[in-house]
Structure formats: C-alpha cells, structure tokens
Amino acid sequence: MPTEREWPLYEVFIRSRGGLDHKHVGSLHAVDPAMAIERARDVYTRRQEGVSIWVVRSADITASDPAQADAWFEPARDKVYRHPTFYQIPAEVETL
Amino acid sequence: MSRFAYVLRLGDTSLVLAQRLGEWVGHAPVLEEELSLANLALDLLGQARYLLTYAGELEGRGRDEDALAFLRTEAEFRNVQLAEQPNGDFACTIVRQVLLDVFQVELYDRLQHSRDTRLGGIAATALRESRYHLRYSTGWLTRLGDGTEESHARTQAAVERLWPFTRELCDPDPIDAEMCAQGIAPDLDEVREAWTARVAAAFSTATLTPPAATAFAWYGKRGEHGEHLGHLLTQMQYLQRAYPGARW
Prior knowledge:
heterodimer; A: alpha+beta; Ubiquitin-like (UB roll); 3-stranded antiparallel β-sheet; 2 helices; 18% helix; flat; B: mainly alpha; Ferritin; 11 helices
C-alpha cells in the first residue's frame, strides 16, 4: 500500500514465562510483522518481561461494540447458577 | 602493555559508538526506532564498561572505567575511526552500524575462545548482543537500500562516504599481531575474510554496491582521529570537565 503515509498499528502480546498465556501489553507502529516483532522486543521486553512475543495488526482484530455492552454482557449478571459454586467438593480433591 | 592497548581499543570503539547512537535520543524518526537505537547504545556501553574496567586492571595504574572514559583526551582514545563518524541521516547511521556490527560479530565470535578467559567471557556476552544489533541494522539496510529511489541514493552515498574508514578494522598492526601470536586475539586476516563475505551478502540483498578499496587509511586504533572525536568528547565528558571529581 504505497499511498499509506502512516505505518500501520500492531497490537503486542507477551508471554512472561513458559506455561503462562500471552497478555496484551500495548501497541506500536511498524511497516510489516517482521519489523513489528523486533520493535516489540525493543519496546516491551527491555526489562526481561517476556520469553515470547505475538504481534497482530490492530486492523485485523474484530472487537465487540462498547455501546452494545448492555445487551451483550448484562444478561449474564443474574445467572449465578452458571458459576460452578453449587458442587460439594470431595475432601480427597486437594488441588481445586 | 600490549594487552592493555588491545583491550582499550575494543572498549573505546564500543564506548564511542554508544555515545553516537545515544545522540539519536530525542531525534529519531519514530519512537520505536529511538528505543531500538538507545538499546543498542546501552548494550555497547555495557561492553565498554567491562572492557575498560579490565583494561584499567591490566594497566595497573589505578585507572578505573570512569577514569579511562572521562579523563582522557581524543589523542589518547584508541577507537576505530568508523565509530566516531557523525550520525548523518538515518541511512548513514545504519550503514555505519552494519559495518561495525559485522566486525564485532566476527571478532567476538573468535575472541570468545581467547586464551585470556576474562576477555573471552566478555566477548561471549557481547556476541549475543552484537548478533541482535546486526539483525536490526541489516534489516534496515535492506529496507533502505532496496526501498525508494531516494532511500537507495542516500544509503549508497553513505556507503561511499564511510567505506574508507573500514580498512583499519581488519588491518593488523604490531599490537594485533602480538595478541594473535599469544593466542589472545584472533587472526585479523581471517576476520577480514569473514567480514568481507558477510558485508558483500548484506549489500547484495540491499541492492547496494561496495566501493573499490581505497589506498588511504586512517588508524584510530593508533590514536589518529579526525575532527569529530574531540567534539564528541566535549559532550560525553562535559560533567567531569565542568565539575572535576563530581560524584553522586
């Protein structure tokens, strides 16, 4: 896209250590994914914050509409029975 | 004393290059590049600290890293002249970086097996950093060289301007020869061969043309410097010059 003057925005996800999931840490501008991941290393892992990086173009993320939050998320509020809090936990189970 | 002189050269080259890269802070094209350049500068400063500390111990006259960095004049610095060349435009900074990154990677890769285990340890640590620096700088070299007409022209112009300063990198003098004979430093002829091949490959990918070898050469590592180093030191050493012995 040679007509594009601004570098596209990328979202950056970092896994802080093995076994944990990647967490969103911020965003940056880069011309392509290869540059984005290198800049992410320089911007977001300077203090040993991570062992793995994902980047994804912000434009490729499909997000829910905050204006629709009422309709989307409120209906779950009074459905406490969806939480697994009504089970008796057997005494033998140690790590639940 | 040859070993002191040799380690001082390596330390000074990293220190002066770090200072140059640090000059981009507040002036880089975009925030992301500014942080990347500052990261390179901090890595190099770290290398310089280890090397100058060790050089001071080898000298045995009680000079520590700070005394060597801040209390010497330009004629006493032993960095290669390429390191002190001004930043110029972004292309110029990148070309200078590629030429020195390749040199440091090829040198440290061999120096890590030095008979001097202290020096070898410093080289092994520095090698990991320099490999990332090279990845950064060659990435930009390709983007600029193989980019637009203007970026190509600017990058090729930077190559022409900086090329004469590359000769001293792998041109052994008596100190290099003595260190090599003692198994402390690698054979610079071998380093030159590797440097030439790797730079040629990077230039080819970036559609750049290496200039012909120049007959004239400068030897910053013998204390011959251009006008630029003195100005660089006035900034780097400002605090010690204005407030001698200042501590905090």
